[in-house]
Automatic annotation (TrEMBL):
This is Trichome birefringence-like N-terminal domain-containing protein. One of its GO terms (cellular component) is Golgi membrane. GO terms for molecular function: xylan O-acetyltransferase activity. Residues 127-180 form the Trichome birefringence-like N-terminal domain. The lineage of its organism: Eukaryota, Viridiplantae, Streptophyta, Embryophyta, Tracheophyta. It is a single-pass type II membrane protein. Pfam families: PC-Esterase, PMR5N. Its main location: Golgi.
Length: 476
């Protein structure tokens, strides 16, 4: 359904649009100013590790916060957003209280995990679908790194640092049916991407994966050979010894939008610009490996997306209001056309990470009606479990677009992480993360009310997403 705005409405939107950008723009200048003034050295007893740190100066304007936070500077994706509760379906089949069976499963400790997993991807990935499998409790080979020792951990996902006591969530290894994932070896990976630039492009879930990748890699790099810098929408991790850059670029809708400011993107009304992607693309088009995602920002119930066609300067601006799903399709089309025109027949590796599910509604797995991921300590064992909130239709739309790109000389590979992540109701930070705003007494009294059941603790689930990337990248 498409609602064309009346001219008067259009003018109103025009003004608020401009006003919005003026505000954002001046704020950006303000922040850049702060940034430039406090280009502080991240002083873990070495001088080469440059960190332009906005956070220390303005704690409530942290660059990497969003979703559940209530700060006016942050994304307004609230905890109830993904709910699309329709009918009272029988939830009992998802009940995770078959403890005996679960305990049994958890006691399977894979001793051979290390060895079996050194298979070098290639042929195996053709005959084996990594996205189908199970979680195996493995406190011998997991986690793959220490959270507190990762120099570049982000506080929004540093669950052990923020007091999470049960750390079993770090001990699960993903076991595909019928084959093993290659074990992540940071030295092999760095050698493989020597002289290259890799960039993650997308939203905070993609950033979550980027932090995981940085932590997976940084432990093998000596001090003085690694830097991390923040510059606006771009965060960059560099390994000097290998001339490697692993970056994250904030672009939650892929196309240009009023959510593009990496800090102030909490807006009450979302506006995207159809077919405008250039100002983002110039930041990642030179990369050798590009990892895209986009999903969560299209999932705001009750909110419509305003799509701006044309430009005000050229006088052909048209603003359409559409359902979020249609907006997503326009973004996919804009993105894929841009790739087709600019990156056809290149040797770049491109990936699209499938949707990351949330665990906001305990009822879905048979917990109490008001339960969330808070206090969950075990994965869901029900095979094929899916949250009602996960929109597989959106991913099918992405699949179709990506499929249509192939004959045009653009190969984007889907990294299918959805099903494995669906099982991990225990893997979210809930309350064990840095809060960027002060919580109220009422919130403190009810931890469920401010639990983050969207992002993932690290070490944790996104490490597996990166094991997929590792396998794809090192096997060819
Ligand atoms: C690993 O597997 C190979 C063959 O699959 C075997 O020859 C080797 O002994 C195994 N190593 C260990 C440590 O189990
Ligand atoms: C690993 O888990 C098993 C079973 O839960 C337990 O008996 C063992 O002590 C654990 N080992 C370590 C090193 O934590
Ligand atoms: C380092 O990598 C960049 C690409 O990321 C490349 O353009 C540059 O030539 C490389 N420098 C050296 C010294 O290899
Ligand atoms: C900083 O980097 C330079 C080379 O880029 C190196 O010579 C020096 O030893 C490094 N310093 C530290 C403290 O790692
Ligand atoms: C930050 O990015 C802008 C362009 O987006 C660039 O002009 C500027 O040089 C960058 N600053 C640093 C310190 O890299
Ligand atoms: C493919 O890419 C080249 C530039 O690399 C461009 O000139 C050409 O128009 C593109 N082809 C299509 C069909 O867009
Ligand atoms: C991912 O895998 C699941 C099954 O594990 C499948 O249903 C889905 O279609 C796949 N593709 C995407 C893009 O999610
Ligand atoms: C948050 O609480 C601390 C003390 O607990 C106080 O110093 C600070 O001013 C508060 N910040 C805001 C934004 O209310």
């Amino acid at each position: 359904m498409t609602v064309h705005q009346a001219p008067l409405g259009l003018r109103a939107y025009f003004s608020s649009f401009i006003a919005f950008f003026l505000v954002v723009f001046s704020f950006s200048i303000f922040l850049n100013h702060i940034q430039n003034q406090v280009a502080t050295i991240d002083n873990k007893d070495n001088q080469n590790n440059t960190l332009v740190n906005i956070q220390e100066q303005s704690p409530n304007q942290a660059p990497f916060v969003d979703s559940q936070d209530q700060s006016p500077f942050l994304v307004d994706v609230d905890v109830t957003q993904l709910k699309n509760k329709n009918e009272n379906q029988d939830q009992t089949e998802f009940v995770d209280k078959d403890d005996e069976r679960n305990e049994l499963k958890e006691r399977v400790i894979s001793i051979g995990g290390d060895n079996g997993s050194i298979s070098h991807g290639g042929e195996e990935k053709d005959k084996c679908d990594w996205s189908v499998g199970r979680w195996v409790y493995d406190n011998v080979t997991r986690p793959l790194y220490s959270g507190p020792q990762c120099m570049f951990m982000h506080d929004e996902v540093a669950c052990d640092k923020y007091g999470r006591k049960d750390i079993r969530y770090q001990h699960w290894r993903w076991q595909p049916n019928g084959c093993d994932l290659p074990r992540f070896d940071a030295n092999i990976f760095l050698e493989k991407i020597r002289g290259k630039r890799m960039v993650f492009v997308g939203d905070s879930l993609n950033r979550n994966q980027w932090v995981s990748m940085v932590c997976l890699v940084e432990s093998v790099v000596p001090e003085g050979q690694k830097t991390r810098t923040f510059n606006g929408s771009l965060m960059s991790f560099k390994v000097l010894s290998h001339n490697v850059s692993i970056d994250f670029y904030w672009s939650p809708l892929l196309v240009e939008s009023n959510c593009d400011n990496p800090i102030i993107h909490r807006v009450s009304s979302r506006i995207m610009r159809a077919y405008k992607i250039e100002s983002h693309a110039k930041n990642w088009m030179d990369a050798d490996i590009i990892v895209f995602n986009s999903y969560l920002w299209w999932k705001k119930p009750g909110m419509k997306m305003k799509v701006l066609y044309g430009t005000f300067e050229d006088g052909d601006a048209v603003l359409e209001e559409v359902e979020m799903f249609e907006g997503f399709e326009v973004a996919l089309k804009s993105w894929s056309q841009w790739l087709e025109r600019n990156l056809n027949n290149t040797d770049k590796r491109m990936f699209f990470v499938s949707l990351s599910p949330t665990h906001v509604w305990g009822q879905e797995w048979g917990a109490a009606p008001d339960a969330t991921c808070y206090s969950e300590t075990k994965p869901i064992h029900k095979e094929g479990y899916r949250s009602d909130g996960s929109d597989y239709g959106m991913m099918h739309a992405a699949e179709r677009v990506i499929e249509n790109l192939k004959p045009k000389g653009v190969n984007v590979q889907i990294v299918n992480i959805t099903q494995l992540s669906e099982y991990r109701k225990d893997g979210h930070p809930s309350i064990y993360r840095r809060q960027y705003v002060n919580l109220t007494q009422a919130q403190l009294a009810n931890p469920k009310s401010y639990s983050d059941c969207t992002h993932w603790c690290l070490p944790g689930v996104p490490d597996v997403w990166n094991e997929f990337l590792y396998a794809y990248i090192t096997s060819s």
